[in-house]
Amino acid sequence: MHVLLCPDSFKDALSAQDAAEAMAKGVLRRHPDAKTTCCPLADGGEGSLDALIAATQAERRHIEVSDALGRPRRAAWGWLAAQRTAFIELAEASGLQHLTPSERDALHTSTYGVGELFLAALDQGAERALLLLGGSATNDGGIGMLCALGARALDAEGRALPPGGAALAKLATLDLSALDPRLSSLDVQAAVDVDNPLLGERGASAIFGPQKGASAADVATLDTALGRFADVTAATIGADYRDLPGAGAAGGMGFAARAFFAATLRPGIEMIMEQVAFAELLAKADVVITGEGRLDGQSLAGKTPIGVSRAAKRAGLPVIVLAGSLGDGWEACFDEGVSAAFALADGPMTLEQALPRTAELLEARTLSLAGLWSYG
């Protein structure tokens, strides 16, 4: 029996690597002779950089950048010298996890630090970049990133706009004359885990703004401001990407990546599976176990367990999902190749009680599953 263990992280509880190791312990307790392969995965959000570095043996580098509120922070990025490829995770610079709940301010947070990560990659001589979107504290459409790379966002009087998405309501001119020329030869692929457009009821502001501190009034303000940004961008570059699936990822960073970097937007899980040679791992496996914090109907938009199950289905392998919780619509995942799905809780418990027990619960669930294989 060869078991491929490829979970995402369990938010606020376990990294993907730790989750895979907990699963492996459960398998080996029941079947000591089983072969297990741990392949931590991610879908483009927080933890994706760690998954890529672990899988490719890329070099982890650090530089000081601005966080979402303009404060200095030490951020990591990955450098795969053999492929001249940089791994840039938005959340390292502008991630929500770096702000306390009281600091969340979708009106004014900025992606400037992401631009600083790009500058480091360009200075190293990167020819290709994988931009990992997700986990952002921002809703600025990527304008902060662009300004770090030389662009200027100006109001009607020619004054530079302050940081943040709300300020884009006053955008009159987008000056790209000093945008770093090295970007024109950089092949950028942006990993997204959602298919939302930039604007409207399913847009960046309405769907993701509230978790970044936006009130209902703030959401309306931000949506209008991003609309202005889209208008000026279209007039400046001659193309309009506001309705592109994934444009609303990470507060509009999907829009910026496509409009200004000519980036290809791809489901993050597909991009990361490609980097880790996932098809080769599947070819050696008998069963696959994956998981993350929550499995629900929204998982079909590109979350790790669904990306894994689709790939395993093509390979004819069974897939078991272990999730912290099963939410509305999770049953739709059966149509995507999931063979079975289980929640981790072994009795009534609050989230606060469950989080510190996640590794224990993962090991216990996997131990129980492994017991069934004796009868397969």
From TrEMBL:
GO molecular function, one term: kinase activity
Pfam families xref list: Gly_kinase
UniProt keyword Transferase, yes or no: yes
InterPro entries: Glyc_kinase_flavodox-like_fold, Glycerate_kinase, Glycerate_kinase_RE-like, Glycerate_kinase_sf
Keywords from the UniProt entry: Kinase, Transferase
Superkingdom in the source lineage: Bacteria
Keyword flag Transferase: yes
Membership in a protein family: Belongs to the glycerate kinase type-1 family.
Protein name in UniProt: Glycerate kinase
